[in-house]
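User: Okay, second chain of the day. Same drill as before: sequence in, structure tokens out.
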Amino acid sequence: MSHESNGSYYAVIFSSKRTDGDNGYNVMAEKMVQLANKQPGFIGVESVRDSSGVGITISYWESLEAISNWKQHQSHLVAQEKGKQDWYQNYNVKICKVEREYSF
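Assistant: Same drill. Structure tokens below.
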């Protein structure tokens, strides 16, 4: 992800272990990315998952308020509940402030 910033921004790190089977996960994941893209304060997202089902998704936001608004979005709430019931064995969320970024 490339982001030119005059100040700091925030990263939400979502690490998870998937359950077996898709159970509608990929369709919902794509829908959530499309929806997040329309949210005020959304900057971008990066995601990886290995063959054992362990994955990390990092979304980037301009403010803590934008993160909170996304967490409370009705469609996202539905996806969160479905995740707890069907898609994840476990997950962990970390919210971090990005002070500096550089790349090669």
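The radius of gyration is 14 Å.

User: Thanks, on to the next one.
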